[in-house]
Amino acid sequence: MRTPAGLCEISLTVNGKKKTVRTHAMERLLDVLRHHLGLTGAKEGCGEGECGSCSVLMNGQVVTSCLVPALQAQDATITTIEGLEADSQLHPLQRTFLECGGAQCGICTPGLIMAAVHLLNSHSRPTLEEIKEALAGNLCRCTGYTQICEAVAQAARDDHGK
Asked: 92-157 belongs to which homologous superfamily?
């Protein structure tokens, strides 16, 4: 299909559903998710890949979606915070963030949870140091990281991180 000058069609799988969007090749994946697909869970914090608020899983790896050009997401599998819900139930990490007080204002929470999902997918029983390292790319301005780390550790102990 012909697209207007400067636009391209990007096909990707988002939260298990095939999607095609018409966008500029260098538009950010964050904007494609938020503005084209209506998935507003990933937040723009810094726009420079430093805060992690826009983190999503792309082909199973954590990426800061504000730094990923749309064209790079061609044929990729993307999981956003919205894709963690199953049968109208919160993901276990979302629940432990609530139970442990790891969620504050909500700007950083989706990115932190996505980083934690990635960690628990690869290390079912991470140490505190591994949790801290996995979350190091995510900044929270509202709270210390103790409750956030407790939430990830609790999900791991409960075998609910996946």
From this structure: [2Fe-2S]-binding domain (1.10.150.120)
Between these two residues, 104 and 61, which has the higher pLDDT value?
61
Architecture of domain 7-81: Roll (3.10)
What is the pTM for the complete model shown?
Answer: 0.91
Which residues, 6+ apart, have CB-to-CB distance to 1 below 8 Å? 9
Residue 161 in this model has a pLDDT that exceeds 80: no
As a whole number of angstroms, the distance between CA 118 and CA 131 comes to 11
The answer to whether residues 77 and 59 touch, using CB atoms and an 8 Å cutoff, is yes
20 compared with 159, residue with greater pLDDT:
20
Residue type, 1: M
Would you list the domain boundaries of the chain?
A: 7-81, 92-157
